[in-house]
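User: Can you help me understand a structure? I only have the sequence.
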Amino acid sequence: MIRNYLITAFRNVIRYKGFSLINIFGLSLSMSVCMLIIVVIQDQFSYDEIHSKKKRIYRVQQVDSLSNVPLKLASNPYPLGLELRDNYAIAEKIVILNNSFNGEGLYNDTRLSINGFYTSTVFFDVFDFQLQDGSLKEILDEPYTMVLSRETADKFFGDEDPIGKFIEIDTLGAYEVKGVIAKSREKSHIQFEALISISTLEILDQKRDEPRFVNNWETGWGSWIYLLLHENSDLVNIQQILDQISHEKYKDNDETNLSFYLQPLDKIVPGPLLGNEIGVFLPKVFILFLGGLALVIIVSAAFNYTSLSVARSMLRAREVGVRKTFGATRSQIITQFLLEAVVIAVISLLLAFLLLQYLLPAFSGMQMMSLMEIRPEQNIKIYIWFLIFALATGLLSGVLPAVFISAFRPIFVLKGITNVRLFSRITLRKILLVTQFVFSMVFIISILLIFKQMNFMINADLGFDAEVVYDINLQGKDFNKVKAEYSQLPEVVNISASSHIPAEGNLRGVDVRLKMEDEKYHCHHFSVDENYIETMGLKLIAGKTFPENMSTENEKFVIASEMTVEHFKLGTVQEALGTTLILNDSTMVEIIGIVKNHQYVALFLNTKPMLLRYNPGSYRHAFLRLESPDMTATVSKLERTWGKIDPFHELNGDFLDDRIKYYYTFFEDIMYTVGFASLLAIIIAGFGLLGMATYSTQTRLREIGIRKVFGAEVNHIIFLVSKSYLWLMLIAAVIGGTIAYLVNNLWLQYLSKRVDFGIGTILAGVFIVVFVGLLTISSQTLKAAKTNPAKILKYD
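Assistant: Let's start by predicting it. Here is the structure, written out as tokens:
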């Protein structure tokens, strides 16, 4: 019996080619996107399955309450872990991870960058990373010992046995390889190339003038703390202990106020949006958004299938009447139509899978997706989910048409299809259609706005000459040596040094005040040399730049921005010259110059008072101002010159404007995603409108025929049939435009420099959607209006 149903279903799919192609295309496109979302969601929920004790593992997170908006971070002050381990018996094991290990590793002639975490042997007692080579016993107890990932060990040692060999890390010394961790197909939110004994960090920290981590309760960056709790631990009691520590350490501190909370391991990925996460993964709110988007897409696609099936039922009413006359039961007809829907859904699944092969590489090229390394081919469960998804889609799409079509009464349908009306009211369908067009308009308006904002940010006047300045990452090399080599090139008209790249990200700052009794103000600052202003093309509006051939004894000078003068009420820019500022608690500096305000932080951040300081110890970048008719040839020269400076590393350089554009790749990712969603939304809405227009024209064929007999023009008939849909689109325009305005202003308000979001952008989005909608309606109404009335009325 099922075999006969399937044969009939395939025959009907082939017989009604136009209907089948429209539905297969619409469903496959929607399903491919939903499958992509399923891949991403399933990948995120697969994290940390490798760890057998995950139900007892918790991470400590911190909240900085001094900010206007409390800042939630995944990291913590390093000594918090020591405090919990040494003074409180709240956990079976405590793991501290610190990410400050990074540098260039050298083994024989192999030189590679390497980074990882400082930790202890306890790490392997808590997390189930399997050791492939070496012994777990006291593996990370001794200073200057390390464990490598399998991939990192292969890069350094190839086929050699790495155990007992040493890797030289820049100026940090030689590290003995004690073990190699096996490669796992399961994913953990903790990813690393190497693990280094934490006793090494404590030795290195003691050598510094000021400890960065070990005894520093002020810095909550760079360290993560994990607890393996006892069975049936009292979480309330642990929280009270964390609150007690927070109170003791920060009650008398006006500059830092951190509080600490527990976070279960299985709530990290996916989990809340936290700053300074230990890895790259999606927050839970984004997963929920993706899940909601998938639901909207597939329900809309299923609704479109239903609408088109109902419209097509006008053509199949006689078939149903004949089959019922010859004894077919309602359940048999329902089964037949459901199987047809499932067949179309399965065919759509095959096409959707092919589309997915194109979607995955396209979305994997996005910055965040590429970092997450999503590989669905490694998980067979995902294909089972795809099949279940296709069957559910087919049943969801086909159930309503099957129920309604099977209810046809033979005595009516055999008289003619115009005697059949499936719905006396179609309010629900109109609501669904309006909803689809609302989504379309929100997406279209959003993509237009994001495109405008992106274009504005790329082409904004930054206040310096980014297009002719070439940035070179010093990679630890002495700036004076770099300057000496590049100054010999005729294309290099000026060269300077800096601690940061301007207009990219945020900056660390320094507390500034005029007098010791004054309240401190946190100013941004760059460390630069005497040629920085000229090289960058900044405008010095008062005073002078740093003297040439300055020594470290002359670090008492600063150059301030106009905003600094205004904030501290120093009078005119000329009056501000010579003013003494107090940095942090004791450093006295004198303002010797004032520069015009410029965009030194990312465009979506607010600029603050800013200081330029002479501090050679903080230089990380060399900026070269170039003049050349052939910049490509000049860059090749720069690369060859770098080979003289550092034969072991390639030049890490680019023009500043390209560096800055790359920083905004995240916005390009959003634009790409929203643009694709916009296209999909308008296609789905178009199919929904096509189904309703088809149904409407089929049920009004007799009316159209009679009007034509009495002389109605084609244009009049098109307007008559289309006007109700035009009203629906106008309603959607009002709702969609309002939602788009409110939603987009939520993120626009956080940008310091933004485009105007006016009525023009909204009207442009509405016009696009309405234009596509009218084209869709016209394709059906024009066809009906040109039909010969004799064919329509021949049964009357």
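Now, to help you interpret it: The longest strand covers residues 93-107. The chain is about 50% helix and 15% strand. Let me know which part you'd like to focus on.
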